[in-house]
């Protein structure tokens, strides 16, 4: 028993600060620098831009507070997979784990790594200008994709060398991007020559939609159309796809519960502190956008890179572009590292339950699940080559929120079904907090099903493909047992 305790305590190398840095680092990728353009095109008013980010912030923090109760009850590696398995049974746990490996975790790694490549191409134009390595019809492999794959494999390799290396990298890069974001916020108010805040707020609660394109697919800058009633709700749901995706991955800290000191307390503290800090930063960054650019400037920023246009307003066109490119490179590099570090622990936990490849089961001599890390890294690299990561992410925001909702509902379900279970931490303002999340999440999902079905069914189908795989695994187990 003593040896077991020593082994567990020697594994626990992540403190509260490391946990909070993992939460913040996994959340802040490239989204906050880009998605406000799409939100503005969908709703056309400064008020609504802020409302979308406030709703997303309330949702995110409410979910984190609710997850805290589950993290204190099941302080094991595997996080959300473990909560779903323990609450609703193995099949629900497997469907989540399958979705995580197929696209949620790996698709996120691929998309954020490609964003790193695209912003690197700002600094090294030759990357942008180079001919594709391979092209067949519409499909091509570019040097940006190769750079993204290199980053994924490099960070996977660093994380196979032990938790310490991944932790150090995470803390340095997350610290850098927090400082840089605060700098952008402060300078965005001090150094902007033209102030558009009053103009952007003059539309009040009027909502306007402009998603018309010319034959080449470029957005037309004229022709904002006023919206009302259900059309506004549809616009909010469409706009929230981006803000929700920019605010996910905070639950990654639950995946590494097995390596966190005092997980019953520190996991929930990490989630609540990290999500609250990030959502406040996101809101302030959007205040800067509204201060520095008019409605058209935000909605039609080249390639949706709103932050780059703002940075050019602050520092001038040459230096501003470089400053923002470096900030996004730091941000995306740190984000990929956090997601790589955390995800592999889920697949290892699934392997222990006989729900994933046996090779993922064992730690290497550095005490980390190296084979699980490589499986995750190689599949993420394949998704980079597929060219479909952007589409996958649009599809997957819906599925991520559905799994969040099932997990948050698990808090209420266990309170009713198993009231006597030990709960070292209880959800703050229960049952209001989980109910708030479930109501907002349900409205988001229903509105997407009505107005933006291309964001819903593909992701749902990918997850449901896990059902025959689950049944096959169980049939094999039964055959072995018989």
Short description:
With 482 residues, this protein is mostly helical. It has 21 helices and 4 strands.
How does the SSE layout of this entry go?
Blueprint: H1 2-11, H2 16-27, H3 36-43, H4 46-73, H5 80-88, H6 90-123, H7 125-129, E1 134-136, E2 139-141, H8 143-160, H9 163-190, H10 197-201, E3 207-209, E4 225-227, H11 230-246, H12 252-255, H13 263-292, H14 295-299, H15 306-315, H16 317-352, H17 370-386, H18 389-417, H19 432-451, H20 457-464, H21 466-481
Antiparallel strand pairs: 1-2, 3-4
Helix pairs in contact: 2-9, 2-13, 2-16, 3-4, 3-11, 4-11, 4-13, 4-18, 4-19, 5-6, 5-18, 6-8, 6-16, 6-17, 6-18, 8-9, 8-16, 8-17, 9-13, 9-16, 11-18, 11-19, 15-16, 16-17, 18-19, 18-20
Commentary on this structure:
- With 482 residues, this protein is mostly helical.
- The chain is built from 21 helices and four strands.
- The protein has helices spanning 2-11, 16-27, 36-43, 46-73, 80-88, 90-123, 125-129, 143-160, 163-190, 197-201, 230-246, 252-255, 263-292, 295-299, 306-315, 317-352, 370-386, 389-417, 432-451, 457-464, 466-481, and strands at 134-136, 139-141, 207-209, 225-227.
- The chain has a two-stranded antiparallel sheet with strand order 1-2.
- β1 (134-136) and β2 (139-141) form a beta hairpin.
- α3 runs antiparallel to α11, α4 (46-73) runs antiparallel to α13 and α18 packs across α20 (457-464).
- The radius of gyration is 22 Å and the shape is globular.
- Mean pLDDT is 88; it is low at 1-10.
Give the N-terminus to C-terminus distance in angstroms: 34 Å
Number of helices: 21
Order of helices and strands: HHHHHHHEEHHHEEHHHHHHHHHHH
Low-confidence spans: 1-10
Strand content range: under 5%
> Which strand order does the major sheet show?
1-2
Indicate the radius of gyration in whole angstroms. 22 Å
Q: What is the helix content? A: over 70%
What summary fits the major beta sheet?
Answer: 2 strands, antiparallel
| Protein structure class | mainly alpha
Residue-averaged pLDDT, rounded?
88
Please provide the count of β strands: 4
Shape descriptor reads globular
């Amino acid at each position: 028993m003593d040896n077991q305790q020593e082994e567990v305590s020697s594994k626990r190398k992540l403190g509260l600060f490391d946990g909070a840095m993992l939460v913040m680092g996994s959340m802040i990728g490239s989204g906050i620098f880009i998605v406000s353009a799409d939100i503005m095109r969908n709703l056309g008013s400064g008020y609504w831009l802020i409302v979308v980010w406030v709703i997303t912030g309330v949702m995110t923090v409410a979910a984190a507070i609710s997850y805290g109760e589950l993290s204190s009850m099941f302080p094991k590696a595997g996080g959300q997979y473990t909560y779903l398995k323990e609450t609703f049974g193995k099949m629900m746990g497997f469907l989540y784990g399958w979705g995580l490996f197929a696209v949620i975790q790996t698709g996120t790694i691929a998309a954020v790594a490609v964003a790193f490549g695209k912003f690197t191409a700002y600094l090294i134009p030759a990357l942008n200008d180079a001919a594709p390595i391979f092209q067949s019809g519409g499909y091509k492999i570019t040097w940006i994709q190769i750079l993204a794959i290199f980053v994924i494999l490099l960070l996977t390799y660093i994380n196979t060398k032990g938790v310490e290396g991944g932790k150090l990298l995470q803390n340095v890069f997350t610290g850098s991007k927090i400082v840089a974001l605060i700098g952008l916020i402060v300078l965005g108010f001090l150094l902007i020559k033209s102030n558009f805040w009053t103009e952007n707020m003059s539309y009040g609660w009027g909502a306007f939609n402009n998603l018309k394109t010319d034959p080449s697919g470029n957005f037309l800058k004229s022709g904002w159309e006023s919206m009302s009633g259900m059309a506004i709700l549809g616009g909010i749901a469409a706009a929230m796809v981006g803000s929700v995706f920019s605010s996910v991955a905070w639950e990654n800290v639950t995946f590494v519960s097995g390596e966190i000191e005092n997980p019953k307390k520190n996991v929930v503290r990490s989630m609540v502190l990290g999500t609250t800090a990030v959502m406040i930063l996101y809101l302030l960054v959007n205040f800067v956008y509204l201060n520095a650019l008019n409605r058209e400037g935000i909605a039609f920023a080249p390639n949706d890179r709103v932050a780059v246009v703002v940075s050019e307003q602050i520092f001038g066109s040459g230096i501003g572009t470089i400053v923002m490119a470096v900030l996004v490179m730091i941000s995306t590099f740190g984000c990929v590292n956090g997601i790589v570090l955390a995800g592999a622990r889920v697949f290892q936990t699934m392997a222990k339950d006989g729900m994933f490849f046996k090779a993922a089961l064992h730690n290497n001599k550095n005490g980390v699940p190296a084979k699980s890390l490589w499986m995750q890294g190689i599949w993420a690299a394949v998704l980079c080559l597929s060219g479909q990561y952007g589409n996958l992410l649009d599809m997957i925001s819906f599925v991520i929120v559905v799994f969040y909702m099932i997990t948050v509902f698990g808090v209420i379900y266990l309170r009713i079904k198993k009231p006597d279970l030990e709960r070292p931490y209880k959800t703050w303002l229960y049952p209001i907090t989980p109910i708030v999340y479930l109501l907002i999440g349900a409205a988001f999902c229903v509105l997407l099903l009505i107005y933006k079905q291309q964001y819903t069914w593909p992701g749902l189908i990918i997850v449901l493909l896990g059902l025959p795989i689950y049944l096959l695994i169980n049939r094999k187990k039964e055959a072995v047992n018989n």
